[in-house]
Amino acid sequence: MDEEVRKLKIVQVIDIFENASNGAAISTERFTELLRKNGHTVWVASTGKIDHHKIPLKEFYPPGAYLKGIMQRMKFVFALPDIKALTAIIAKCDIVHNQLPFYLGYWTVRIARKLKKPVISTFHVQGEQLTQNAGLKNPLWTKFIYKIFLHFIYNRSDLVICPSTFAETEIKKYGLKKPTVVISNGVPSQYKPIAYPKRYPDKFTLLTVGRNAVEKRQEMIIDAIAASPYKDNIQLIILGDGPQRARLLSLSQKILSVPTEFNLLPADKIIEYYNSTDLYIHAAAVEVECMTAIEAMACGLPLLIADSPLSATKQFALNDKFLFTTTEELTAKINYWYTHQFELNESRKQYLNLSKNYSTEKSYQKLEEVYYNILGIQQYTSIKKEQAEIKSKFRSKMLWKKKTQLLLPEPSTSKILLSGHR
User: Fold this and answer.
1) What's this model's pTM, rounded to 2 decimal places?
2) What is the CB neighbour count within 10 angstroms for residue 85?
């Protein structure tokens, strides 16, 4: 079989790319690596270091030291669009993939439409993430933010990728008119069960990972442990940084008898943390998917998840025993699992099996197919199926040839070349 499917030229556009701790950047970095490994040419327009196939953009913060301080603690910065550079690279590509709905995203979609290039946007940021961090409690602010996102980004894109069914429903609720597809951010194969020794052998160890931000509600976990009769035997680990870090540290020192381990998000150690603790707790009120929850269960770590109406993460709970809504209910669930650790360990296999539905490789295959389909290369799926069928028939013929010692004619070679070049 001599078959070739055209490789694509793709521009990934995101405000921050390297060494970021937010899910959008980590997901983009992982998919970019897979696309390149599979022969596609991928440029990245972003802030950060100058690199091969990188369009470096200048950083900027909104005015005001307070907002700048919050963004710095969250390790996030806005990218200042370089209109000339973006126009030049988008003109050379087959497809544009915009990741975030900010100023850079606005100009990316605008340029792509002007050049008649297909543009996909991913729904990574909920309006509530911005309003809660900014202290804007009136729900009209959330509606206003979604109206801006939809008008300037999502309803001007050709297709919107949603990391979960919940995210798809949520953005449609606010008025998305464009087609959608659900593609999980996924989890790489290196996240797996590994026999590390327990980090705290004499303690029931609870782990939570993520930004120390208002919507993540880590203070709920601290309060819940403090109310438990087993608090002297419970060790809490909080990995991440953010504007709520000092407040969480102060609260834990005041009401917990066992000192909480606070640490930054150590990329080279995170798999060890997942494999050396007893239970992962995710208290966030707002979440389009939650990559850390998928990473945890890929390592066989059970999840105790907030049942929030604005969060998709509850989809990973095995049953109601792994869900909570209030601080009091979280205390009760922690108490239950403390006294039922055999049952908790038995759930590890179930979480591990569930995680197999969210592999990065599976998500990559869906993403690649979306790229081809949005370009109108509808033959892509049928080509791969035809290739497998021809290879199967070829193997059958070769086996028959060996058995009968007959000289069979060589199978015909079907060359399928799609328009374009590598």
Assistant:
1) 0.83
2) 13
